[in-house]
């Protein structure tokens, strides 16, 4: 079943919605990181940033803002800042001293093209840029909400967010007695934090009430774990060409994954459960405005790469 | 001439002032990064963060805040956040793929103790932490000033700040036709940005007028370049033991430095000129409140490591 054929959503054209939003985000990213001096680092940043990712985090941020009644202009810098951070984490995770990956989004990884030194610095610069753009380019939002958004975003990246997930992931390689709790910790910290930040930033900057912010936080946590479970499934069921990145890496690295712990079928059932739990959290919102978020959850659940 | 014997400052006890401020900053850093789960990354962050640096950036930030009439509590999170960022840049610069340094602040570098993967992640987490702490822990400051401060800080780190300096530095190694302009670009971008951010954040968060913010910006740019010129001089005149880091590295790496381009004596004269230009910018401020900044400029000019 494809996301744009979901029987629950006859009237919502998810494909057009995504194309629209992804184009807007890509244009904003293109302007936000111009090819200026020193050229090499800007080139390296643009190489990974404009490599055609799925832009799930920016789109989630824009959709959450819309859900709480905000305008797109309030949240666009935060939306593309999320992609900068996501790209930073990919560039650093791909380094030889981490996952040592040669292929990403169907292209050679950043350090393969620009060298490890530039890849480290390009990542650092992207991380700093993300905060700069939210602080300097956000318009139509009160400063107290901008400060709150920056606090949430920063928390999602650091030693209790993305970095924590990656550390525990690295230090778990080859461990044999890893259980589901431990795996969930890794996954919740590796993918969910930025998705959570995306939804929460959209709601905060869009002017949402605290209650809505918290509902969207839970929704994002669910689809964050869903994203990772599906990633694990794709790693064992798809080829490198289909994925646009090296397939079967988890098996080679002896990584703990959901398919390894509970088998492919149970993993798919678990994904289904996470998806329906997420959708339940959207009940009570304007159905028309929640359509993109429902479609996004379906997209994550049923994506093929 | 030692900084605490400067004849212009008979009444200001710089040593006590520094001990006081450094203790306050170290205590704040110790609480800001507790040893929590996942332990390994927090341990790595604390290892480099609490390794006993000179804390020049935090002290400059506190002094700038005081100069414009602000309270220490307004600016403490920003002050220690600057040290987090400085530490991040040291940890990443020391990596084998960059400067490949084994010794820092008299101890083995972060990646030597925790591995390159953890060193990259600890740096990323410190960078994120710095923004989190400014956003979440700053008290007694209006949110618009916090947003402005975050924008300034972020700019100082990214592809027009620290990262730019490091990129141009790396790509200049072994070049033979590098002139003073090029060298100044590297130095201004490698050290000055964070010192500039320190002074500017102190002034902004302390409630300073725009005019004072800009005066302090220029002051910091001057002592930033001064800092780097003195660093170049120390690298060729001191031993590794005296410096607490590997000496003579610039020569080995065939790096362009001020002593190489203009000789030791002319480099010292240049440093003297930068110092007096910096001090001129402080005229017009309350002499008692500018004493720490004057002493700091002298300290940077005459430090021995």
TrEMBL record, chains A, B:
Report the superkingdom from the record.
Answer: Eukaryota
* Keywords carried by this UniProt record: Carotenoid biosynthesis, Isoprene biosynthesis, Magnesium, Metal-binding, Transferase
Which cofactors does it use?
Mg(2+)
Q: Which family does it belong to?
A: Belongs to the FPP/GGPP synthase family.
PANTHER family to which the protein is assigned, alphabetical: FARNESYL DIPHOSPHATE SYNTHASE (PTHR43281), OS07G0580900 PROTEIN (PTHR43281:SF24)
**Protein name in the entry:** Geranylgeranyl pyrophosphate synthase
The family database entries (NCBIfam families) matched by this protein are listed as: FPPsyn
Report the pathway entry: Isoprenoid biosynthesis; geranyl diphosphate biosynthesis; geranyl diphosphate from dimethylallyl diphosphate and isopentenyl diphosphate: step 1/1; Isoprenoid biosynthesis; geranylgeranyl diphosphate biosynthesis; geranylgeranyl diphosphate from farnesyl diphosphate and isopentenyl diphosphate: step 1/1; Isoprenoid biosynthesis; farnesyl diphosphate biosynthesis; farnesyl diphosphate from geranyl diphosphate and isopentenyl diphosphate: step 1/1
Give the CC-aspect GO terms.
cytoplasm
Identify the Pfam families for this entry: polyprenyl_synt (PF00348)
Q: A single Gene Ontology molecular function, please?
A: metal ion binding
